[in-house]
TrEMBL record:
This is Methyltransferase domain-containing protein. GO terms for molecular function: methyltransferase activity. It comes from Microbacterium hydrocarbonoxydans. PANTHER family: METHYLTRANSFERASE (PTHR43464), METHYLTRANSFERASE DOMAIN-CONTAINING PROTEIN (PTHR43464:SF82). InterPro entries: Methyltransf_12, SAM-dependent_MTases_sf. It comes from the Bacteria. GO terms for biological process: methylation. CDD domains: AdoMet_MTases. Signal peptide: none annotated.
Amino acid sequence: MNGSNVDIEWQAARDANHDNWNDRVPLHETAYGLDAFDDPNHLSDVVRDDLPVLSRLLPSGSLTGLDLCHLQCHIGTDTISLARAGATVTGVDFSAPALAVAAELASRSGIEATWVETDVLDARTAVSGDFDVVYSSIGTITWLADLDRWATQIVGLLRPGGTFFIRDGHPALYALDEDAPTLTTRYAYFGDGRAQQWDDESTYVGDGTVAHPRTYEWPHPLSEIIGALLRAGLRLIHFDEGRTLPWRFSSRMVEVAGGFAWPEAERNLIPCTYTIVARKD
């Protein structure tokens, strides 16, 4: 059953997820609308939403001239958008095909970028240099079993005074039954160390199917996410929750400015995203 809790070793789960994300690359290369990046002013919707919050909380008020590491960058659309906002960017992902698409898109867009193939949990060892900003956004940490190790990578990558930014799907949202006719909890909000097993041939955008449909994710409550960052030594400087998503989590969601949301009568009942900004002193 989709979303059932299973005991599985990290490496086996990681390998299954790796195969699945490699399969997604050609589907997303078509579905992401990469031709839009031929316009030198084009930014991804994700970065267009994130940038005002991030820029406001940077000491300089802008990404211009800053070194930025984008964790779990996939095919690079957000990374390239961050470069267009002024940053010198390094994109990190565990999928070689995804990074190949990212590198080609960057070249086509006239963007200089560094691409590093590695698991995010090994990022500090694999990535050279220190960064003013470490960035992660939308659909990232549910793929990770160990958030303490994740947070340690972030701290290791940041310079003193550096800023970490994440916006992601809210764990309260992920606990909901996406197929129910009302807001109904179905999946665990609090994790117990076991993975959630999913079998889905589709992806969150576009047509086509993947050859490796089985994936594994881990529920992480807000307390675990924030706690991992604090335990690693970061200082929380901003927290917010949002009512919209850049993808349609449920077929009942309606399209609104900035993405998708629950019907208006339910919009204030459940958060869709959270945003955390933290600093390394």
